[in-house]
Amino acid sequence: MRVAVATACANIALVKYWGKRDAALNTPAAGSLSLTLDRLRTFTTVERIDANADALVLDGVAVEGKALARITKFVDLVRGDDPARVRVTSLNTFPTAAGLASSASAFAALAVATADAFERTLTPTELSVLARRGSGSAARSVFGGWAKMNAGAAPDGSDAAAEPLEIGVELAAAIAVANAGEKDVGSTDGMELTRETSPYHAAWIETVERDLPTAIEAARAEDLDRLATIVEGNCLAMHANAMAARPGILYFGPSTLWAIDVVRKLRAAGTPVFFTIDAGPHVVAFTPPAHLDAVAEALIDHPEIATVLTSQMGEGAHAIEAMP
Ligand code: 2P0
């Protein structure tokens, strides 16, 4: 074993993942489309420790309980029968667990670092499959830029992996970060409750299957108007589906509707920009880099918005020499 360090960027989905095919293998019921973002980044070290349990240090704080159990279960996938225990040390450059895709960068970085620590050589597809076992969205963060997640059909989940897409259009993101602590309903529980109880869930999965090829087509054609309609529609359909669960899951906060309105007014006035929202109150506005500063400035002016982060497209997960 060796000490391994890796970094990965989070990603934001334009066509979203909300529903599993197989919870044990963590395969998605449908594909998804995302952009990897360089502002939302995780750095992770995996090293052997002389102990009988693994350890987790997240943003400088030792963590036990459910979060550590999730890490142990993940490391077991690579460790197999090897009795070695490890310490995972992870740093995020953004708030953890507030609906800002922290599990995507976390498990993509952990997949690279764990494989490296146990001296396993994996192909990019195998790394994506491994990252998916930790968190579905992490499969996409193995790749930089535009990534497409494939739902796959194999019973063992070996084809439920992301792949990089060659798409010429450059988009940057302004992320309006709302004043909010940890979310009440995490994505994993939220999507299971939605699948079990929402009357709209089958229609949602069909919507994703239609939106995925048309969003890729619109992006390839650099037709941002068409992409805006698909991405915003897909996001609102995901939230409508979650809201229709019993009990209903509502991720929007007071600033969410305000920011949606800001983005739509900017677009009506001629700025190429569109929004998406993950499992939290934060609105992510995508726009070509030339419009990023103006879009970010328009989004800051609300009492419930703490900050607006700006990001360019990010690189795929990879090994590095040392933690920053
Ligand atoms: C996405 N989200 O496509 C969607 C949109 C949140 C909203 O993927 O259970 O944390 O770990 O596989 O990856 C968040 O789900 O769920 C997510 P698990 P994950 O980005």
Give a short overview.
The chain has 324 residues and is α+β, with helices and mostly antiparallel strands.
Structure description:
With 324 residues, the chain is an alpha+beta fold. The chain folds into two domains: 3-167, Ribosomal Protein S5, domain 2 (2-Layer Sandwich), CATH 3.30.230.10; 172-311, Alpha-Beta Plaits (2-Layer Sandwich). The chain is built from nine helices and 14 strands. It has helices at residues 66-79, 102-117, 124-134, 138-141, 187-197, 201-220, 224-243, 254-268, 292-299, and strands at residues 4-15, 20-22, 27-28, 32-49, 55-58, 61-63, 85-92, 146-149, 162-164, 172-178, 274-277, 283-287, 305-311, 318-320. Strands 1, 4, 5, 6, 7, 8, 9 and 14 form an eight-stranded mixed sheet that branches. It has a four-stranded antiparallel sheet with strand order 11-12-10-13. A hairpin with a 5-residue loop joins strand 11 and strand 12 (283-287). Helix 2 packs across helix 3 (124-134) and helix 6 (201-220) packs antiparallel against helix 7 (224-243). It is globular. The relative contact order is 0.20. Ligand 2P0 binds at residues 13, 16-18, 26, 32, 103, 135-137, 187-188, 278-279.
Mean pLDDT: 96
CATH secondary-structure class of the largest domain: Alpha Beta
Succession of helices and strands: EEEEEEHEHHHEEEHHHHEEHEE
Structural class: alpha+beta
Sheet-strand content, in percent, reads 25-35%
Q: What percentage of residues falls in helices of 4 or more residues?
A: 25-40%
Low-pLDDT runs: none
CATH fold descriptor of the largest domain: Ribosomal Protein S5, domain 2
